[in-house]
Amino acid sequence: MRNPHNDTLGSPKTEADVSSAKGSERRCVLTGSTAGRDELVRLAVSPDGDVHPDALAKAPGRGAWIGVSKEELVEAIGNGRLKGALARAFKTGGLNVPEDLPTRTEAALKKAVLDRLGLEMRSGRLILGSDRIANEARMGAVAALYHAEDAKEDGRRKLDQAWRVGLDEEGSGRTGERLPLDREALSVALGRENVVHLALADAKSAERVAIPLQRLLNFMGAAPAAAET
Q1: Distance between CA 76 and CA 115 in Å, rounded?
Q2: Which residues of 151-181 are buried (b: 16+ CB within 10 A; e: fewer)?
Q3: Rounded distance between C-alpha atoms, residue 119 and residue 131, angstroms
Q4: How many CA atoms lie within 13 A of 166 on its CB side?
Q5: Who is most buried in 37, 74, 225, 227, counting CB within 10 A?
Q6: Cα–Cα dist 197/179, whole Å
Q7: 23 pLDDT exceeds 50?
Q8: In 3D, which of 143, 106, 111, 138 has the Cα closest to residue 126?
Q9: Could you write out the DSSP letters of every residue in 146-212?
Q10: Are strands 177-178 and 197-200 parallel, antiparallel or unpaired?
Q11: What is the pLDDT of residues 121-167, one digit of tens each?
Q12: Tell me: the pLDDT tens digits for 32-58?
């Protein structure tokens, strides 16, 4: 059987690896731990040996996966652990690991989330505007709720409450996801002014956004929003 063009190192695939929720498992070259590919970040290696982030995990050629935070990646580059791990995995020392790889990885992951949100908006599945979101949320027509990083607490609280009402989960403490993206980044990417809150009405759309968002949250060391107990 032909291997996929972006087959990875240290992670032989079996049917047991496949999960409908997280996809095939991959192994982090730095820690040796395994997780669903939707939770890890792929690093691609060019024919010239340059290492760069592959935020969508679709770049052709050789690649390896990491499951560490930005801070941990900075440390792994500084002490040579990443280059050593990649050299062992690829059986070559001719690799160029740029010092700004953590910053480039963060930018690539953020772009992946913003691009996905843009696609959902163009498909008519993204809901913008606090009043519209609140109305849709109370009717139970919101599958996922997001807030800009710099959204005010009062605005977040009101929309979270409306969402819980629509989901019949009052008292659960469930909240929308606070994105590691500010209103300026969201506004520029979506071509709208002052995008602070946004929502998705379609569960499939929420699943599509969840993949790049989970990678970004993991890399930034942020846990997804969860209901309070």
Answers
A1: 29
A2: beeeebebbbbbbbebbeeeeeebbbbbbbb
A3: 22
A4: 21
A5: 37
A6: 10
A7: yes
A8: 143
A9: EE-TT--HHHHHHHHHHHHHHTT-TTS----EE-SS-HHHHHHHHT-S---EEEES-HHHHHHHHHH
A10: unpaired
A11: 999 999 999 999 999 999 999 999 999 999 999 999 999 999 999 99
A12: 999 999 999 999 998 889 999 999 999
Which residue type, as a one-letter code, is found at position 189? A
Displacement of CA 131 from its chain's centroid (Å):
27
Return the bridge partners of 53, or none: 43
How many angstroms separate the CA atoms of 97 and 116, rounded? 28
CB 63 within 8 A of CB 43: yes
DSSP per-residue codes, the chain = -PPPTT--TT----GGG--TTT-SEEEBTTT--EEETTTSEEEEE-TT-BEEEETTS--SS-EEEE---HHHHHHHHHTTHHHHHHHHHHT-S--B--TTHHHHHHHHHHHHHHHHHHHHHHTT-EEESHHHHHHHHHTT--SEEEE-TT--HHHHHHHHHHHHHHTT-TTS----EE-SS-HHHHHHHHT-S---EEEES-HHHHHHHHHHHHHHHHHTT-PPP----
**Spatial distance between the Cα atoms of 229 and 217, rounded to a whole number of angstroms:** 22
CA distance 114 to 53: 16
